[in-house]
Specification:
Number of strands: 24
Radius of gyration: 23 Å
Strand order of the largest sheet: 3-2-1-4-5
Bound molecules: ligand MV4
Largest sheet: 5 strands, parallel
Helix content: 25-40%
Shape: globular
CATH class of the largest domain: Alpha Beta
Number of helices: 16
Number of domains: 3
Strand content: 15-25%
Structural class: alpha+beta
């Protein structure tokens, strides 16, 4: 096993910056790549070496051959793929290995296995993990009648999913037989368009589940531990908005079972590096495996905060042949952490992306506050990428403390010049069901309408400030509005 001395980050944005921070602490030289649209990205400046990949700004981060070619030319030992882009591309992971470069992540065979949702379900079922009742073989795009027959066998409502899907694409909930054919056909069309494959499967639809995922970390010698769970139930259009660790309302027995099942399955498969086992938990506390993510996730910081373990550093050390340095019993979970994804999107226009120049940037701080972001004053968010620009992560000893601290930090967070989803977060942390930990995946569907009035007031109040082109000091005064007293009052 060679020693990683130089690592290339095949990603951009806040996760590129996060990986740089891990490299600095590991004393590994880090190489950034950037597109023509990302010249001003802060990770480009903070890396030890940065390389422009010209041409299409999205392809810059997707062209694996070109990235490997660069890596070889400049003597890179390892590539960290981050999340998105090439992170779950088994061919890219294999190409790294074939070119003598360490891929910081799982084995290509496991990336491929879990990319195929049907194969993944089958493999997990075979090793005794409960999966949702449904088709065990792919249904091809023109087999609507076979799909329909299976759906009625399962019993409505059912859900149609794409075998190679993700992000809710190619997914349809079918309430009754009469609408099955139409929904199956639109789902397959979508699947073919986005994933280049029309293979589908049908499952019993679980109403109002909680979305709970278990973080796993394993070394090359078969040592494996879990790092607790994250509750990702609060989503909008299949995009996670808030993630929490631990889940505020999960029974002790369910939690223990989830950990045991996730760990045992990954052990049986010989899984290595980090992974997230996703489950749906139904209203009766039954849980079912749905998917496995074979990469670091956006929401990894909440796990880092409650365990004190640097997940990115662990990934790099494991890829370098390092053993896990802790046993399960040695991992201490402390308090609660919640992540708020800070997106450049406009709550007043159906959360449409709102890239552009940040003219005011005042970040919260103090105890229990962590921010992973590329946002800063005078930075222009390019329009080509995901609208998520950063994450506010809050920690406290108990759930009530987290809610209070989150309110305080979100009130402190001022981003001006572009609309963001901060007003949505401020409304959520004031919601009684959120405060009571009483939510499932339908939370935002039920609540968004009721949040509109508060969000509107919030946005109008702040908008007036930015439009007047005030100094940061004037913004602070206007937002926080302390009443100053005379010396002798
Ligand atoms: C489901 C489900 C209910 N029943 N599968 C969403 C993303 C993908 N990873 C799996 N997802 C779901 N799968 C069965 N059998 C509910 C979800 C789901 C969801 C579905 C519709 C609208 C919003 C949702 C939010 C989270 C999970």
């Amino acid at each position: 096993m060679k020693n990683i001395k130089k690592l290339l980050i095949a990603n951009r944005g806040e996760i590129a910056l996060r990986i740089i921070r891990a490299c600095k602490e590991l004393e590994i030289a880090c190489v950034a790549i950037y597109s023509e649209a990302d010249v001003d990205g802060v990770w480009v400046k903070k890396a030890d070496e940065s390389h422009l990949l010209d041409g299409d700004p999205i392809q810059a981060y997707l062209n694996g051959d070109r990235i490997i070619e660069l890596a070889k030319k400049i003597g890179v030992d390892a590539i960290h793929p981050g999340y998105g882009f090439l992170s779950e591309n088994a061919d890219f992971a294999q190409a790294c290995i074939d070119n003598g470069i360490i891929f910081v992540g799982p084995k290509p065979e496991h990336i491929a296995l879990f990319g195929d949702k049907i194969a993944a379900k089958k493999a997990m079922k075979e090793i005794g993990v409960r999966v949702i009742e449904g088709t065990e073989e792919p249904i091809s795009e023109d087999d609507t009648q076979e799909a329909k027959r299976i759906a009625s066998e399962i019993g409505y409502p059912v859900i149609i999913k794409a075998a190679f899907g993700g992000g809710g694409r190619g997914m349809r909930i079918v309430e009754e037989e009469a609408t099955f054919e139409e929904l199956f056909e639109t789902a397959t069309k979508e699947a073919k368009k986005f994933f280049g494959n029309g293979d589908m499967f049908v499952e019993k639809y679980i109403k109002n589940p909680r979305h709970i995922e278990v973080q796993i970390i394993a070394d090359k010698e078969g040592n494996i531990v879990h790092l607790g769970e994250r509750d990702c139930s609060i989503q909008r259009k299949h995009q996670k908005v808030i993630e929490i660790s631990p889940s505020p309302r999960l029974s002790k027995t369910v939690r223990k079972d989830l950990y045991r099942v996730a760990k045992r399955a990954m052990f049986r498969l010989g899984y290595e590096n980090v992974g997230t086992v996703e489950f749906l938990v139904d209203e009766n506390d039954n849980f079912y495996f749905i998917e496995m993510n074979t990469r670091v996730q956006v929401e990894h910081p909440v796990t880092e905060i409650v365990t004190g373990i640097d997940i990115i550093q662990r990934m790099i050390r494991i890829a370098n042949g390092g053993k896990l340095i802790f046993l399960q019993e040695e991992i201490n979970f402390k308090g609660y952490a919640v992540e708020f994804r800070i997106n450049a999107e406009d709550p007043m226009h159906n959360f449409a992306p709102s890239p552009g120049k940040i003219t005011t940037y005042l970040a919260p701080g103090g105890p229990g506050v962590r921010i992973d972001t590329i946002a800063r004053k005078d930075y222009t968010i390019p329009p080509y990428y995901d609208s998520m620009t950063g994450k506010l992560i809050i920690w406290a000893l108990d759930w009530t403390g987290v809610v209070k601290r989150a309110k305080r930090a979100l009130d402190e967070y001022v981003i001006g010049g572009i609309p963001t989803n901060i007003p949505l977060h401020r409304a959520i942390v004031r919601d009684v069901d959120f405060i009571n930990g009483n939510f499932t995946t339908n939370f935002l569907d039920l609540k968004l309408e009721g949040f509109m009035e508060d969000m509107k007031l919030d946005i109008e109040k702040e908008k007036a400030l930015y439009e007047n082109n005030l100094s940061d000091d004037a913004v602070v005064a206007a937002v926080f509005g302390a009443i100053k007293h005379m010396k002798n009052s």
